[in-house]
Amino acid sequence: MSAHRQWPGWEPRQSVRRRRRLLARVLVLGLVILLVLLGFGAGGLWWATDHYGDQVARIPHAFPEGPRPEKTEGTTFLLAGVDSRSKTPTTGKDATAALWKYGAQRSDTLMLVHLGPGDRTASAVSIPRDSWVPIPGHGHAKINAAFSWGGPALLVQTVEHLTGVRVDHFAVIDWHGFRSLTDAVGGVRITVHEDAYDPEQRRHFTAGTHTMNGAEALAYVRQRHGLPGGELDRIKRQQQYLRSVLSETRGEVGLTDPLGTARVLDAITRTVSVDDGLSNSDLRGFALGLRHLHVSDTSFSTAPVVRSQMIHGQYALILDRARLRAWCHAVESGTH
Predict the structure, then answer these.
(1) Are 312 and 141 in contact, with CB atoms under 8 Å apart?
(2) Of residues 113, 145, 140, 114, the one with CA closest to residue 129
(3) Is 12 within the bounds of a domain?
């Protein structure tokens, strides 16, 4: 009988091995999907947070040494968006350049987010990049210079000194990551309330609701020239974007779309860096606590501004520090 002759039920050994490998891969994929479908239940959540948590880029020495504000109930995050001069990513697991190098990056976006006990509510306050504040060891300057001069630790120290709030965790994303994360969720729906033109970026924004990709959304949240409120209008756009991306992410992450869940989680690990004190166990706890948190449960505000003025030839915003501290205290104590 010829070695190549076939009959019903017979197939070459190589074909059998390939079929078995394919079956094994299907079974593994099925198991992964099942774990995600089971809830972010016990096993699925444990696997997901360890798997993706291990991929998150951790930042060493993200916090300052010396005296710091006392820990209170709940958890406070400092979120920063940095404008890096690097042509390659500086945040997330895809980073190929240093997160911080003296004078190379500034924090264009700064937001303090407090999660209340039980993680059922969240309060966020944006701090304008042009806020004129004391920066420890450097005198007074715009707050975005803190990251440029001393990286995460000096930025955290500056914000803690300004607000009286202890920062528990720090997370940062650069503009490369911003674009990638936006594209990963399929773009974000943004309502532009009126036509606008940015003379610096040479971009037009047309009134109406648009689904913006990463590049378009980045241009939208970076505009301040051509807006009546300048920097303060830009902050409104940043908060608008955050609300939208939270809604889009929540829509992608769910029991009925395990592939969407994996896509979003993978995008987050590729683009965001966090302090090395944020363990996989912490991530698991936040995932459990935040699964019921909706955008409607989050309040957004902006640090109160007294006036704008030119200081040493620079446009700067003078904050009402007493009101800002009072707001932060009210949020921490649950009386906000």
Answers:
(1) no
(2) 145
(3) no
Question: What is the distance in angstroms between the CA of the first residue and the CA of the last residue of the chain?
Answer: 86
Distance CA 151, CA 147 (A): 4
Identify the sign of the CA torsion 228, 213, 246, 175: negative
**How big is the chain by its Cα radius of gyration, in Å?**
23
The domain that holds 170 is classified in CATH as 3.40.630.190
Phi and psi angles of residue 157, each rounded to the nearest 5 degrees, phi first:
-60, -40
Count of beta carbons in the 10 Å neighbourhood of residue 282: 16
| pLDDT tens-place string over residues 5-43 | 444 444 555 555 555 555 555 555 544 444 444 444 455
Quote the domain boundaries for residue 130. Answer: 52-333
Q: How many domains does the chain have?
A: 1
Which backbone phi and psi does 147 adopt, to 5 degrees? -65, -40
Residues 223-237, mean pLDDT to the nearest whole number: 88
**Residue 312: strand, helix, or coil:** coil
Measured distance CA(159)–CA(129) in Å, rounded:
12
| Element of type H or E holding 79 | strand 75-84
Q: What is the pTM of this model?
A: 0.79
Task: List strand residue ranges (DSSP E) for 152-260, in order.
Answer: 169-174, 188-192, 196-198, 203-205, 208-212
Question: How do strand 203-205 and strand 57-59 relate by DSSP bridges?
Answer: unpaired
| 85 Cα distance to chain centroid | 19
- Distance CA(308)–CA(319), nearest Å, equals 9
